[in-house]
Amino acid sequence: MEAFVSKLLMVHKASCLDAFNLTASYADHDSLRHIHAWMRHAIRGNPKVIEVRTMCFYGYDLLYQLPHLGSSNPTGRRLTSLKLTGVSLDNSFTELFHSAAWPHLEDVVLVQCQLAFPRIESERLKILGFQYCTTPAAEVFVIRAPRLASLSMSLHSNSCEKGVVLDVGSPLVRASVSLKRDEFSARNEAMLLGSLSNVTSLEIRDFQAMAILDTELFDKLPVFNNLRNLALNPFSVDDTISDEHNSFKALGRFLQKTPNMETLTLEKFWVAPTVELVEIPALQNLRTLILDTCDLDDNFGLLQYYLLNSPNLEKLIVQYCKVVHFFSLA
């Protein structure tokens, strides 16, 4: 197969490639040599889209190292989208975001990559994905992209011990942030959440309740005036605290910061009958409510509250929810 792919690329006579997509697994340096040759040949084809997914059978011990693609390379002028999975990236990779050789690069997605640099800065970047990458060189990872429109991040403590600092400006339309539970401090999580206050559509997963319930952190959290669409799962809590009470309380407090929200998606929420709902504000602008895999076996308290406190609600979607007993909403 390696010989076939190499021959196929060599006999390809077109002046350029529209896209190059490579998925490969390997176990030794010999296989890496072939992948490296394929990648270099593809780069010479000046593609618009490059997508590389590699998997080493020995984990991070033998990661594929992306060839240097800095300003000295004249063939990258068509590249608009770069998506890498399981690749090791050295400091030269950051040249892509500044070099005149890559003027159209606007879409970058990094998944389970090993990064040797502590920051990404770009005046051109519009789409960024940062999924479970490791950054041994940085306690804090910095992302500065003032034109960014879409951001997707999944983080654990190996990504950056003290979290991510975002400077993304105001054009941000969509953001999705998923955290590894209990691996970051409440303060770092609150700072990360606050840096997304200009976003229009936000999805957050596994943030801890204390990032919201801590009064000092909550008071510093800005109002999300631009937010129209919010999706989230229950806030994580300390095992010694009542999960349902504090998770739902954190939800209520956070909703106080989203006065213009029109669509709310709750995933895997449930409310014990003993939990009071008084801290959740009236949602005057809410038009669509989606309950996804929620537990409604609580005398429908979760559903009942939103029906009674969302006067302009137009659409209700209940999907894959648990209902054991039926109780009247009257």
From TrEMBL:
It comes from the Eukaryota. Gene3D superfamilies: Ribonuclease Inhibitor (3.80.10.10). InterPro entries: F-box_SCFL_complex_component (IPR053197), LRR_dom_sf (IPR032675). Coiled coil: none annotated. Transmembrane segments: none annotated. This is F-box/LRR-repeat protein. It comes from Digitaria exilis. The lineage of its organism: Eukaryota, Viridiplantae, Streptophyta, Embryophyta, Tracheophyta.
